[in-house]
Write a sequence for this structure.
Protein backbone atom coordinates (compact mmCIF):
# COMPACT_ATOMS: atom_id res chain seq x y z
CA UNK A 1 0.00 0.00 0.00
CA UNK A 2 1.45 3.33 -0.96
CA UNK A 3 -0.72 5.57 1.20
CA UNK A 4 1.34 8.58 2.20
CA UNK A 5 1.88 8.77 5.95
CA UNK A 6 2.97 12.36 6.18
CA UNK A 7 2.57 15.81 4.65
CA UNK A 8 5.69 17.62 3.58
CA UNK A 9 6.65 21.17 2.57
CA UNK A 10 9.88 22.25 0.90
CA UNK A 11 12.06 25.34 1.40
CA UNK A 12 10.97 26.02 4.95
CA UNK A 13 13.08 27.94 7.46
CA UNK A 14 13.31 27.11 11.14
CA UNK A 15 13.54 30.23 13.30
CA UNK A 16 16.07 32.77 12.07
CA UNK A 17 18.33 30.14 10.52
CA UNK A 18 19.16 30.84 6.91
CA UNK A 19 19.13 27.28 5.64
CA UNK A 20 16.01 25.94 4.08
CA UNK A 21 14.77 22.51 4.86
CA UNK A 22 11.97 20.00 4.48
CA UNK A 23 9.16 20.40 6.94
CA UNK A 24 7.15 17.32 7.72
CA UNK A 25 3.88 16.78 9.54
CA UNK A 26 3.72 13.09 10.47
CA UNK A 27 1.68 11.01 12.95
CA UNK A 28 4.54 10.86 15.47
CA UNK A 29 5.32 14.57 15.30
CA UNK A 30 6.72 17.51 13.42
CA UNK A 31 10.14 17.41 11.82
CA UNK A 32 12.38 19.81 9.98
CA UNK A 33 15.55 18.83 8.21
CA UNK A 34 17.91 21.18 6.44
CA UNK A 35 20.18 20.29 3.54
CA UNK A 36 23.07 20.81 5.94
CA UNK A 37 21.76 17.94 8.06
CA UNK A 38 20.46 20.16 10.85
CA UNK A 39 17.21 18.84 12.27
CA UNK A 40 14.45 19.87 14.62
CA UNK A 41 12.04 17.23 15.86
CA UNK A 42 8.93 17.84 17.97
CA UNK A 43 6.99 14.89 19.34
CA UNK A 44 3.25 14.81 18.73
CA UNK A 45 2.55 14.49 22.46
CA UNK A 46 4.39 17.74 23.18
CA UNK A 47 2.22 19.85 20.88
CA UNK A 48 -0.21 22.26 22.50
CA UNK A 49 -1.25 24.90 19.98
CA UNK A 50 -0.45 25.60 16.36
CA UNK A 51 -1.14 28.84 14.58
CA UNK A 52 -0.51 30.38 11.21
CA UNK A 53 0.42 33.97 10.49
CA UNK A 54 2.26 36.25 8.10
CA UNK A 55 6.00 36.00 8.53
CA UNK A 56 9.11 37.75 7.34
CA UNK A 57 9.50 34.99 4.75
CA UNK A 58 6.01 34.31 3.51
CA UNK A 59 3.74 32.53 5.94
CA UNK A 60 4.77 31.26 9.31
CA UNK A 61 3.68 28.34 11.46
CA UNK A 62 3.98 28.96 15.16
CA UNK A 63 4.18 25.82 17.27
CA UNK A 64 3.53 26.13 21.00
CA UNK A 65 4.54 23.14 23.11
CA UNK A 66 3.00 22.06 26.40
CA UNK A 67 6.07 23.35 28.24
CA UNK A 68 5.48 26.76 26.56
CA UNK A 69 8.46 26.43 24.23
CA UNK A 70 7.73 28.12 20.92
CA UNK A 71 9.05 27.08 17.53
CA UNK A 72 8.55 29.03 14.37
CA UNK A 73 8.77 27.76 10.85
CA UNK A 74 8.41 30.07 7.92
CA UNK A 75 8.54 30.30 4.16
CA UNK A 76 5.16 28.63 3.61
CA UNK A 77 3.00 29.72 0.71
CA UNK A 78 -0.54 30.95 1.39
CA UNK A 79 -1.85 27.88 -0.42
CA UNK A 80 -0.07 25.60 2.03
CA UNK A 81 -2.47 26.53 4.81
CA UNK A 82 -5.30 24.13 3.95
CA UNK A 83 -2.97 21.20 3.47
CA UNK A 84 -1.15 21.86 6.74
CA UNK A 85 -4.43 22.40 8.55
CA UNK A 86 -5.86 19.08 7.34
CA UNK A 87 -2.73 17.13 8.26
CA UNK A 88 -2.52 18.70 11.73
CA UNK A 89 -6.17 17.99 12.36
CA UNK A 90 -5.84 14.41 11.19
CA UNK A 91 -2.65 13.52 13.06
CA UNK A 92 -2.88 15.61 16.24
CA UNK A 93 -6.56 16.56 16.47
CA UNK A 94 -5.44 20.18 16.76
CA UNK A 95 -7.02 23.04 14.87
CA UNK A 96 -4.47 25.16 13.00
CA UNK A 97 -5.59 28.67 13.80
CA UNK A 98 -5.08 31.49 11.35
CA UNK A 99 -3.94 34.49 13.36
CA UNK A 100 -4.15 37.99 12.01
CA UNK A 101 -1.36 40.33 13.02
CA UNK A 102 -1.65 44.03 13.60
CA UNK A 103 -0.42 46.02 10.59
CA UNK A 104 -1.52 49.46 11.78
CA UNK A 105 2.06 50.56 12.27
CA UNK A 106 1.50 51.93 15.76
CA UNK A 107 4.19 51.87 18.43
CA UNK A 108 1.86 51.64 21.40
CA UNK A 109 -0.04 48.69 22.75
CA UNK A 110 -0.13 46.16 25.55
CA UNK A 111 2.43 43.54 26.48
CA UNK A 112 1.40 40.00 27.22
CA UNK A 113 3.48 36.97 28.15
CA UNK A 114 3.32 33.42 26.88
CA UNK A 115 5.96 31.18 28.35
CA UNK A 116 9.15 33.19 27.96
CA UNK A 117 7.80 35.14 25.00
CA UNK A 118 6.70 38.72 25.21
CA UNK A 119 3.84 39.51 22.87
CA UNK A 120 3.11 43.11 21.93
CA UNK A 121 -0.57 43.52 21.10
CA UNK A 122 -2.10 46.46 19.30
CA UNK A 123 -5.89 46.64 19.54
CA UNK A 124 -6.01 42.98 20.61
CA UNK A 125 -3.94 41.72 17.69
CA UNK A 126 -0.32 40.67 18.07
CA UNK A 127 2.11 43.04 16.37
CA UNK A 128 5.35 41.31 17.31
CA UNK A 129 6.76 38.71 19.62
CA UNK A 130 10.09 38.64 21.43
CA UNK A 131 11.72 35.46 22.75
CA UNK A 132 12.87 36.71 26.15
CA UNK A 133 14.64 33.40 26.65
CA UNK A 134 17.13 34.57 24.05
CA UNK A 135 17.69 37.93 25.74
CA UNK A 136 21.18 38.45 27.13
CA UNK A 137 20.28 41.28 29.45
CA UNK A 138 17.75 43.84 30.55
CA UNK A 139 18.20 47.23 32.10
CA UNK A 140 16.42 50.46 32.96
CA UNK A 141 18.09 53.21 30.95
CA UNK A 142 15.72 55.88 32.26
CA UNK A 143 12.61 56.61 34.19
CA UNK A 144 9.78 54.35 32.98
CA UNK A 145 12.09 52.71 30.48
CA UNK A 146 12.89 49.03 30.10
CA UNK A 147 15.49 47.87 27.60
CA UNK A 148 15.86 44.26 26.51
CA UNK A 149 19.16 43.35 24.94
CA UNK A 150 19.33 40.44 22.49
CA UNK A 151 22.64 40.96 20.73
CA UNK A 152 25.78 42.73 21.92
CA UNK A 153 27.73 44.82 19.41
CA UNK A 154 30.77 42.54 19.37
CA UNK A 155 28.78 39.33 19.28
CA UNK A 156 29.09 37.01 16.25
CA UNK A 157 25.95 36.15 14.30
CA UNK A 158 24.25 32.81 15.05
CA UNK A 159 25.30 29.68 13.18
CA UNK A 160 24.01 29.49 9.65
CA UNK A 161 23.19 33.20 9.47
CA UNK A 162 24.85 35.37 6.86
CA UNK A 163 25.34 38.78 8.54
CA UNK A 164 24.77 40.49 5.19
CA UNK A 165 21.51 38.70 4.54
CA UNK A 166 19.80 39.29 7.88
CA UNK A 167 19.17 42.49 9.77
CA UNK A 168 19.45 41.43 13.38
CA UNK A 169 17.41 42.96 16.16
CA UNK A 170 19.86 43.96 18.89
CA UNK A 171 17.72 45.68 21.48
CA UNK A 172 14.27 46.95 22.22
CA UNK A 173 13.44 49.76 24.62
CA UNK A 174 9.94 50.12 25.96
CA UNK A 175 8.41 53.12 27.63
CA UNK A 176 6.08 51.89 30.36
CA UNK A 177 4.15 54.78 31.93
CA UNK A 178 3.85 54.44 35.67
CA UNK A 179 3.59 50.66 35.99
CA UNK A 180 6.21 49.70 38.51
CA UNK A 181 5.00 46.11 38.74
CA UNK A 182 5.61 45.46 35.06
CA UNK A 183 9.11 46.89 35.20
CA UNK A 184 10.27 44.73 38.06
CA UNK A 185 8.75 41.73 36.31
CA UNK A 186 10.91 42.40 33.26
CA UNK A 187 13.97 43.07 35.36
CA UNK A 188 13.74 39.70 37.03
CA UNK A 189 14.03 37.90 33.75
CA UNK B 1 5.73 65.25 33.37
CA UNK B 2 5.76 66.33 29.77
CA UNK B 3 2.34 64.91 29.01
CA UNK B 4 0.16 67.33 30.92
CA UNK B 5 -3.28 67.36 29.39
CA UNK B 6 -5.19 70.54 28.74
CA UNK B 7 -8.34 71.23 26.78
CA UNK B 8 -6.59 73.04 23.96
CA UNK B 9 -4.27 70.20 23.15
CA UNK B 10 -4.29 69.02 19.55
CA UNK B 11 -6.25 65.86 18.94
CA UNK B 12 -4.68 62.59 17.96
CA UNK B 13 -4.72 62.26 14.20
CA UNK B 14 -5.33 58.65 13.33
CA UNK B 15 -2.97 56.95 10.95
CA UNK B 16 -2.59 53.42 9.75
CA UNK B 17 0.15 51.68 7.77
CA UNK B 18 -2.10 49.05 6.21
CA UNK B 19 -5.82 48.45 6.22
CA UNK B 20 -5.38 44.70 6.50
CA UNK B 21 -2.69 42.06 6.61
CA UNK B 22 -3.12 41.29 2.93
CA UNK B 23 -1.94 44.83 2.11
CA UNK B 24 1.39 44.31 3.86
CA UNK B 25 4.01 43.82 1.13
CA UNK B 26 5.53 40.38 1.07
CA UNK B 27 9.01 40.81 2.44
CA UNK B 28 11.00 37.76 1.44
CA UNK B 29 13.94 38.13 3.79
CA UNK B 30 14.63 39.17 7.32
CA UNK B 31 15.71 42.58 6.19
CA UNK B 32 14.53 46.09 6.86
CA UNK B 33 12.24 47.33 4.11
CA UNK B 34 11.17 50.92 3.56
CA UNK B 35 7.70 51.07 2.02
CA UNK B 36 7.67 54.66 0.78
CA UNK B 37 4.20 54.47 -0.73
CA UNK B 38 2.65 53.56 2.62
CA UNK B 39 5.06 55.71 4.67
CA UNK B 40 6.08 52.67 6.65
CA UNK B 41 9.26 50.96 7.75
CA UNK B 42 8.94 47.17 7.95
CA UNK B 43 11.30 45.64 10.49
CA UNK B 44 12.32 42.00 11.00
CA UNK B 45 11.57 40.71 14.52
CA UNK B 46 12.55 37.07 14.85
CA UNK B 47 10.89 35.95 11.66
CA UNK B 48 8.07 38.47 11.70
CA UNK B 49 7.69 41.43 9.38
CA UNK B 50 6.67 44.28 11.67
CA UNK B 51 5.44 47.59 10.24
CA UNK B 52 5.99 50.95 11.96
CA UNK B 53 4.35 54.02 10.43
CA UNK B 54 6.77 56.91 9.84
CA UNK B 55 4.59 59.09 12.11
CA UNK B 56 5.72 57.01 15.09
CA UNK B 57 9.39 57.62 14.33
CA UNK B 58 11.23 60.41 16.10
CA UNK B 59 14.62 60.01 14.45
CA UNK B 60 17.15 57.49 13.20
CA UNK B 61 20.90 57.24 13.70
CA UNK B 62 23.59 55.06 12.23
CA UNK B 63 26.93 53.98 13.63
CA UNK B 64 29.71 51.62 12.61
CA UNK B 65 30.79 48.82 14.88
CA UNK B 66 33.50 46.60 13.45
CA UNK B 67 32.13 44.84 10.36
CA UNK B 68 28.60 45.90 11.23
CA UNK B 69 26.45 48.94 10.80
CA UNK B 70 24.05 49.59 13.63
CA UNK B 71 20.83 51.45 12.98
CA UNK B 72 18.98 52.92 15.92
CA UNK B 73 15.39 54.03 15.56
CA UNK B 74 13.89 56.27 18.22
CA UNK B 75 10.14 56.49 18.41
CA UNK B 76 7.77 59.12 19.70
CA UNK B 77 6.45 58.31 23.17
CA UNK B 78 5.07 60.26 26.11
CA UNK B 79 7.53 61.56 28.66
CA UNK B 80 10.05 62.83 26.14
CA UNK B 81 11.66 66.21 26.40
CA UNK B 82 11.24 67.05 22.74
CA UNK B 83 11.40 70.82 23.02
CA UNK B 84 8.48 70.98 20.60
CA UNK B 85 6.02 73.82 20.63
CA UNK B 86 3.14 71.45 21.09
CA UNK B 87 3.07 68.06 22.63
CA UNK B 88 2.24 65.29 20.25
CA UNK B 89 -1.20 64.04 21.21
CA UNK B 90 -1.37 60.38 22.12
CA UNK B 91 -4.09 57.91 21.36
CA UNK B 92 -3.48 56.14 24.65
CA UNK B 93 -0.85 57.73 26.84
CA UNK B 94 -1.15 54.87 29.33
CA UNK B 95 -0.17 52.21 26.83
CA UNK B 96 3.25 50.61 26.65
CA UNK B 97 5.30 52.22 23.90
CA UNK B 98 8.18 50.98 21.79
CA UNK B 99 10.67 53.76 22.40
CA UNK B 100 13.78 52.51 20.61
CA UNK B 101 15.02 49.66 18.44
CA UNK B 102 18.52 48.83 17.30
CA UNK B 103 19.34 46.61 14.33
CA UNK B 104 22.65 45.57 12.86
CA UNK B 105 23.79 44.24 9.52
CA UNK B 106 27.12 43.56 7.84
CA UNK B 107 25.74 44.93 4.57
CA UNK B 108 27.02 48.46 5.08
CA UNK B 109 25.94 49.66 1.66
CA UNK B 110 22.33 48.54 2.02
CA UNK B 111 22.12 49.82 5.60
CA UNK B 112 23.37 53.22 4.40
CA UNK B 113 20.62 53.30 1.79
CA UNK B 114 17.99 52.25 4.33
CA UNK B 115 19.13 55.00 6.68
CA UNK B 116 18.83 57.60 3.90
CA UNK B 117 15.42 56.26 2.84
CA UNK B 118 14.11 56.41 6.40
CA UNK B 119 15.37 59.93 7.05
CA UNK B 120 14.01 61.12 3.68
CA UNK B 121 10.65 59.54 4.41
CA UNK B 122 10.57 61.25 7.80
CA UNK B 123 11.45 64.60 6.26
CA UNK B 124 8.75 64.25 3.60
CA UNK B 125 6.16 63.26 6.19
CA UNK B 126 7.08 66.25 8.35
CA UNK B 127 6.80 68.55 5.34
CA UNK B 128 3.39 67.14 4.43
CA UNK B 129 2.20 67.55 8.01
CA UNK B 130 3.38 71.17 8.09
CA UNK B 131 1.54 71.85 4.82
CA UNK B 132 -1.58 70.22 6.18
CA UNK B 133 -1.47 72.41 9.27
CA UNK B 134 -0.97 75.51 7.18
CA UNK B 135 -4.02 74.63 5.09
CA UNK B 136 -6.07 74.03 8.23
CA UNK B 137 -5.25 77.47 9.65
Amino acid sequence: MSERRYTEFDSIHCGVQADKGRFRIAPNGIGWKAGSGKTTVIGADDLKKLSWNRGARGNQMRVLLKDNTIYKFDGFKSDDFEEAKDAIKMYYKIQLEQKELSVRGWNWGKTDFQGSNLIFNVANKPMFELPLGQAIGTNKPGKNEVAINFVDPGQPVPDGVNPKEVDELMDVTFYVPGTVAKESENKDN
Amino acid sequence: EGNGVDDNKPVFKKFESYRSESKLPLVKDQKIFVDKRNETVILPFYGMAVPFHITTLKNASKSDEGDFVMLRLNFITPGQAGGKKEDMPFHDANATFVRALTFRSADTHRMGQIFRDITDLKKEAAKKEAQRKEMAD
